[in-house]
Design goal:
Blueprint: H1 7-25, H2 29-66, H3 68-128, H4 134-168, H5 171-206, H6 234-250
Site (Enhances dephosphorylation of CheY-P): 177
Function: Plays an important role in bacterial chemotaxis signal transduction pathway by accelerating the dephosphorylation of phosphorylated CheY (CheY-P).
Protein name: Protein phosphatase CheZ
Length: 253
């Protein structure tokens, strides 16, 4: 495929031919002037390309700002995402506290049951070896009676605490849904930013201006310059956009 050349390319080609002719003829007089002219042409070419790229990026940014979906994300969904993540943190903290409280309440009860059971096992071993006196047997019987009574209450309390731990884990379903929604939002914003990068790089790769999506007629989102940023006067935003447009237009882009 033949690459079309513009007027500036033709000018550089003419200057290059003159420079080659002067060098071949040994005429050093115009060489310096021709080199300076080629340098000026190159600077102009870079300036024009930079201007066109700036204009394309400016138009792409405007299109991105005017997208009603962007306004919705910026004004509603991102603040909502912050609230959702705060809600996730709150639920996680509550579940952690409930779980720790249940463990702290259950551990002493279980330790006491273990100590009492160990003591009774020793007395029971003596009883089987017929090493207990009548008085010691009576004491063991009283201890066993108290143990069976207390262990029932302790196990009921521990069972209730384990139920609390299980119920505390129900936050995972809610937080999982919230986190997945926030991830979807982040992915959507990422896709939009990647699109901007592609628009900005398309001219550099192909040499052609990027094709921007046209807004539907009657789209009210085209009346503004995107959502207002807190703490920033909207008139400043409009003025800044107009100044960029005027500057690019005055430079011929």
């Amino acid at each position: 495929m033949e690459q079309q050349t513009g007027p500036m390319d033709d000018d550089r080609l003419v200057l290059a031919r003159l420079l080659v002719s002067a060098l071949e003829a040994g005429d050093e007089g115009p060489v310096s002037e021709l080199l300076d002219s080629l340098g000026v042409q190159q600077e102009r070419s870079l300036f024009n390309e930079l201007g066109r790229l700036t204009r394309d990026l400016h138009e792409a940014l405007n299109s991105f700002r005017l997208d009603s979906r962007v306004a919705e994300i910026t004004q509603e969904e991102i603040p909502n995402a912050k609230e959702r993540l705060s809600y996730v943190v709150t639920l996680t903290e509550q579940a952690a506290h409930r779980t720790l409280n249940a463990i702290e309440d259950s551990m002493p009860r279980l330790s006491q049951i273990s100590r009492q059971a160990e003591s009774l096992m020793g007395d029971w071993a003596k009883f089987k070896r017929r090493e207990l006196s009548v008085e010691e047997f009576r004491e063991m019987s009283a201890t066993l009676d108290g143990f069976l009574s207390s262990v029932q209450d302790d196990l009921a309390a521990v069972s209730g605490r384990l139920s609390d731990v299980m119920m505390a884990q129900d936050f995972q379903d809610l937080t999982g849904q919230v986190i997945r929604r926030v991830i979807e939002l982040v992915q959507e914003v990422e896709e939009g930013l990647v699109g901007l990068v592609k628009v900005a790089s398309e001219r550099m790769v192909t040499g052609e201006p990027p094709k921007l999506e046209e807004k539907a007629e009657g789209d009210s989102s085209g009346k503004g310059y995107g959502p207002a940023v807190p703490g920033v006067d909207k008139t400043d935003i409009v003025s800044g956009q107009d100044e960029v447009d005027d500057l690019l237009s005055s430079l011929g882009f």
